[in-house]
Structures are given as C-alpha cells and as structure tokens.
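Lecture notes, unit on protein representations.

Consider one protein chain, 633 amino acids long.
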Amino acid sequence: MPDDTQSKPASAGIVTANEAVLRRSPFDDVQDLDDARRGFLGTATDPVVRDAEGKAVWDLGAYAFLDQGCPDSANPSLWRQSRLCAEHGLFEVTEGIYQVRGFDLSNVTFVEGETGVFVIDPLLGVENAAAALALYREHRGDRAVTGVLYTHSHADHFGGVKGVVTEEEVADGIPVYAPRGFMEHAVSENVLAGTAMNRRAAYMYGAALPKGERGQIGSGLGQTLSTGMVSLIAPTVEITHTSQKATVDGIRMVFQLTPGTEAPAELNVHFPDLRALCMAENATHTLHNLLTLRGAEVRDPHEWSRYLTQAVDLFVDSSDVAFASHHWPVWGRERVETFLSEQRDLYVYLHDQTLRLLNQGLTPLEIAERIELPPALERAWHTHGYYGSVSHNTKAVYQRYLGWFDGNPAHLWEHPPVEAAQRYVRFMGGADEVLRRARESFDEGDFRWVAQVVNHVVFADPDSAEARALQADALEQLGYGSENGTWRNFFLTGALELRHGAVGTPTKTTSPDILGALTLDQLFDSLAIRVDGPASWDADITVRWNLTSGEAVTMWLRNGVLTHVAGHGAASVSPDVEITLDERVLRAVLLGALPPTDLPGPGGAKVTGDLAKLLELFGHLDAPDPDFAIVTP
C-alpha cells in the first residue's frame, strides 16, 4: 500500500500546466540573472551561520539544488525567481554602495563614508547581520559603523541591528535613523497579534518544510526567515517629512517619507552624490502584498502608487541605479524609470479595477477570478505574483473598502467551520461518499475543488486518516503548480501538518528587545487582550501601581474587560491592592518574568491591601497558543 505520510510526485495535470508556463514565459530573457550577479565580490567560506550555542540559524548552501533544472513539482517561474533570490554574497551596487544578499530574507546595504560605513536595514537576525558585516569587512576593510538606517517597521529590516552596532555605541553618538512612527508600528505589530502572525508566518515562509524540489524552494521575496536572535535599538533620529536631508560621515541623503505603503512607517532614500536610489521595500522584483497572508493591516495601493509616482518625479533624473532591501538592483536611468513606473501601474491597476468591479456588484471571489494584468505588465518579470498575488491582493482591496461581508445575507450568519462541516458531509451523503467523489475530482485534476470539499470531511472528523491523506495530496498538488512562493509554502505546510501533525513556529519576533520596547500603555494593552472574558464576567478587581518616579497607573477588571488609566485621575477609586515599585520591577511583573507572589521585595516594592486580588486578576489571563491548529479543527 502507498505511504500516505510521504510527499507524492506531481500529477500529469500539474506537469502539463508547468510545461505550459515554460512555453508562454520569456525564459530567454536573462537580464535579471545578469543583474543578480553583477558586482559579485565573494561570499562566506563557511555556509552555515550559527548562534552563540552553535545552532544553525541560516545555511547558504541549503538552496544549492536550485542550480539544477526545474523539476515537475515546481512552477518554472517560481523556480527561476527562487534561483535568483538564492544568489548570495557581497555585491557592489555602485562605487561606494555594497549589498550582502542571500544571508537572510532581506538584504543589508553598506554605504561607505569618509571614515566608516553606514548600514541600511540590518536583516532579521543578529547572527546573520554580524556575518554580513564580517563579509563586507573581509573585502572592503575593517570600517567602523558610523550610522544605521531602518527603512521601515518590519522586523527583517531591523532585527539584526545588534549584529552591526551596540546600544553603548548608539548611546555614544552613532545615529540610528527611522521614519516617523517606526517604534509604534515595529512593536505593536509584533506583540498584539504577534502569536497569530508568527504561527501563520510559519506557513507563509515554509520554515519547517524540507528544502528541496518537493518542499520549500523560496518565498518569492527572498528564501525564508532566519531563526536567530531578533534585536532592536530605538532610533535616535526621526525622519518626519519628504525632502528632509541628513549627512552622516560625509554621506548626503535625501529622504522620501512613504507611510501606508508596504509598511505603515516607511521611507525611500536618495544618495545624490552617488546617483543611487534606495526604494526600501516599495519597489521590488515581485508583485508585493496588499494584505500579507501571515496577517496585517490592509495596505493602501492608491497611496503606494502615488508615492512611486513621486519617487520618479523626485529622483529618477538624478539616479543611475535603484536598489531595494530585497532582490537585486536595476541599473540605468531609463530602466529605473520603467521599473518604477511599471510597479506603480501594477498597484494602481489592481486598486482601480477592483473598485470598478465591486461597484458592479461582484464579490471578492468573483473579482479575484476576473482580473488579469494587462499584457504589457504581465510581460515584465517583476510584476509576477511571487509574493503577493492578483488573487489575494484584489480581495484585500475589497476588504479595505467594504470589509469581510460580501452583501449576501446568506453569508451574514453562517455556521462556524466544524458545525458547517458536519452538516455539509451529512447533506452530501456521508464521508465515504464525499471522499469517493473527491477522488474522482482528484483524478480529473480539480485540486481546488478537492481541497474545498475534503476540508469539510477533515473538520467533521479530524481523526479520519483517509480524509487527511486525500486533503494533504490535494494541497500538495496545488503547491507544485503555484507561481506564488507563499501560496506554495502554505499548501505544502498544510500537507505536512495533515500528515505529521503541527510543526511549530520556527521564527518568533516577540524577542526580549521587542518586549522591552513596549511602552507601559502597550504593556497593559497586551494584558487586556489575554483576559478570558466569559470566565471573568463577575470579577471586580482594582489594582493601583504607584511608580517610584511619581507616576501611577490604575487598572480594573470588570465585565470581562481590563481597563487601565495612567495618572492620578482615578485617585478616587479605592483599589483592592496598591503596589509601590519602580518601573523596571513593574515591567518584570507584567511580562511574567517576576511572579506576583514574589511581591513585595524586589527593588523595594511595597504592597498595601490584598495581594491575593492581584493573583486573582492574573488568574483570568489566558496564555496564547503558538502552535494552534490551522488545517484541522
């Protein structure tokens, strides 16, 4: 009997579909390959990046298999993109600007000044950033870091900062630049919904998948997430407006603020003396996400396109190269203008056409099936949906304007997944009949339908090995045919978990540095979202924290809601317990590093009233589940 726990070869239908991609796409265009290899100076002799305990957090050799021809189990267009993203080493962008690529999901850029080097976007992991800096210095000399720039608020662009500079060096005067709103968004995105985002990111980047022709081959934007330490040093200089200028170590910079584009806090930066334009993550060699599959706020494609138009107007005439914090640069003024203009047209086309169709009454699913890119855009490799997709981006535009509800009252109060699944399966003649028909659809190559209908059987009876095996096989075939790297990873990770159980969350961005950057207000909010509401409906608890700095915070649990008020405005409220302590100890308590039972004591903390009420309040807090089920109930 076949082993249902192992990956299967590509079906005849997927092989045929992938062969069609080869025929219709311009694979003889090697401009991107030339650009991805241009300026190569060398790479690390040891391909494995390790943490302080010797654990591997990145392997430069993990994608060597991409040098072979594309197999039947991968979309040739995605294979091509992954091969380009897997190019690793130190590259000269132009005289004075160098990038280390392939050492993490993102790129780190080194701009040489009069005495040292200015670092842009120091990757996700500390270990990876340190390895990149070491490679740069091996080829360009032991230059001191004279400044750091975070182009935006996503962790893969700041998390490695302590691999290139220390907090002490920053305190001694090394500037750290970031766009307005950086700290708020960098911290809140990774904490309030961080557990769910990290779990879904495990699917999106396929970090737990085996790397190979039937497994993870990349994510379209880069290869995958590193698994080392994520750090954060707060910016010392905030960029607040477009055309703001700065000079560091003789390096002149002109900034363009682009909030609400690829990140809520983001900027582009131009180097006029070097005729070079850094586009952060606003223009890369892929259709980007308007709503990332790991989850985030919906991005605004209208504003995104407007800022790309502004970048063309402000900088193209004085730029000979455009580079970003992912992928490879584009050289030549005309090519830069074409690249940015096509990226602009890409986002505004999806925005405008989605609005046109929703105003004709089409639903998100209908719009996603209807919209195709214009042929002129489709011919450009950098507009392909390797990371974002036309399908999920158009749904995001719909969500931005109209929300989750498509207007059909039949969809207003549907049963949740398990209850609906049990009814579907019963109406369709029982699980055996559904699976029999689903196998027929599988043999016909209708894998989308198999995945949709067998999902009901899995949710009605998650212990059905037969249903799980067929669902895994269907998801696997969908992955093999996907041009989108994150779709492939989602499909294949779903298949993996159906066959072997939960694979966990390899990368976590809620590191001590991120948690330490939370304001007290954010810390109290992070507690509030953990309250088990129904279990605390009848609770009525008030706690006052008096800080030795003179500040006070009063919080109370009532009606299943944890509310807090800073200051002395709640002084008339009589607390059940009042605790005087310094902020460091309060943070330790709120973060769970110091059990409330250890109070009073640390740092001179004093307790007045009933400490048991604080313990009761903490007893109403749920712990988030980092490995919650996705493809099963």
